[in-house]
TrEMBL record, chains A, B:
MF-aspect GO terms: DNA-binding transcription factor activity; transcription cis-regulatory region binding
Cited InterPro entries: Homeodomain-like_sf (IPR009057), HTH-type_TetR-like_transc_reg (IPR050109), HTH_TetR (IPR001647), KstR2_TetR_C (IPR041490), Tet_transcr_reg_TetR-rel_C_sf (IPR036271)
Boundaries of every HTH tetR-type domain copy: 11-71
Species this chain originates from: Agrococcus casei LMG 22410
Top-level taxon: Bacteria
Pfam families linked to this entry: TetR_C_24, TetR_N
DNA-binding stretch(es), residue numbering of this chain: 34-53
Protein name from the UniProt record: Transcriptional regulator, TetR family
Coiled-coil boundaries: none
UniProt keyword terms in alphabetical order: DNA-binding, Transcription, Transcription regulation
């Protein structure tokens, strides 16, 4: 936690406020959390929060942008590679697991967004664009002949990312479990399956 | 919906009340739903609901038992088969997808349970016993030599059921999409992976 001691009282910078807010949003729900509740949890006045964030909605926007930006960067990095679509897909799957583990609270918040406000709707739209680019990548892997016969690209994309997103349900950073080990398992399960060929 | 017309008013039997209640629990959350809200949604008096279910908690218990009972039956049927552990695992994965699609609202409710009440805690305990039996089955498949080298049974079990559970996030019965087609994809993705060998 980004906490610094100032004149004997804990102080939070912008990053520290964001981190605590995302934790409270995940615990109690965004709608059910007021800026007053956040202020109480942080031991700050509401105006101290408003010094850093114009509104509760801005906190949400910054948090969702962090999750989406990290996923998009992982994708863009993988797509910039020279390899086949299959190799790029493998790289995105690995990158998405690493983002999920590294930015767990932010991705958890993103996965729970239901599109009730403008900020949430914008995040859902951006997430869907990411999903469409992943589907296009699975299709490209199919078209280059990398996929087994009969694979439905849309269904496979949903199932693969369903598997990755489900990691947020059980992964707890404090219990260790390296992102690389999980990413290796996801990639090998996704590409080669559980059973010996 | 199990609705019958009685003297010009819609009537609900036990099954119909349960179905509507589960829909409202999934939409607004179990905690946030009162028997008064259910009565209003059903167009019934609270005492008409209490004629069929002793409490809101009993509605939840019956709903969760339906999801858990269906999953356990699918497992027990698969484990009663003569085949290898790998074949039994394949049958359970197929059966779990079919249960999820056939009992979607009930499984959705089960997946959201967080263990805040005795009924919820009992359901979480029963779900964990199911998960343990699945892990034991993955281990048995490993021990008979069916799995690729290096597969972690616990991690594989979590990822496979994460993939299956994620179907509840996007599957909409009204848009069609056969349970058998989805189950085939889950089984082939899980066992043989996405890529050509």
């Amino acid at each position: 936690m980004t906490v610094s001691e100032k004149r004997g009282r804990p102080g939070y910078d912008r990053e520290g406020i964001l981190q605590v807010a995302v934790g409270v949003f995940n615990e109690h729900g965004y709608d059910a959390t007021s800026v007053g509740v956040l202020a109480e949890r942080l031991g700050l006045s509401k105006s101290a929060i408003y010094h850093h964030f114009g509104s509760k909605s801005e906190l949400l926007e910054v948090a969702l942008d962090r999750a989406l930006g990290a996923l998009e960067s992982a994708r863009d990095k993988a797509l910039a590679g020279e390899g086949s679509a299959a190799e790029q897909l493998e790289a995105v799957l690995r990158g998405a697991v690493q983002v999920l583990v590294a930015e767990l609270p932010y991705v958890t918040l993103l996965l729970r967004v239901r599109g009730n406000t403008d900020v949430e709707r914008a995040a859902v739209t951006r997430r869907r664009a990411f999903d469409r680019s992943m589907r296009a990548l699975v299709e490209a892997a199919r078209d280059e002949g990398s996929l087994r016969d009969g694979v439905d690209a849309g269904l496979a994309e949903r199932l693969l990312f369903g598997m990755i997103n489900s990691i947020a349900e059980w992964y707890r950073p404090e219990q260790g479990g390296s992102a690389d080990v999980i990413a290796d398992h996801v990639v090998s399960l996704a590409t080669a399956g559980l059973f010996r060929g």
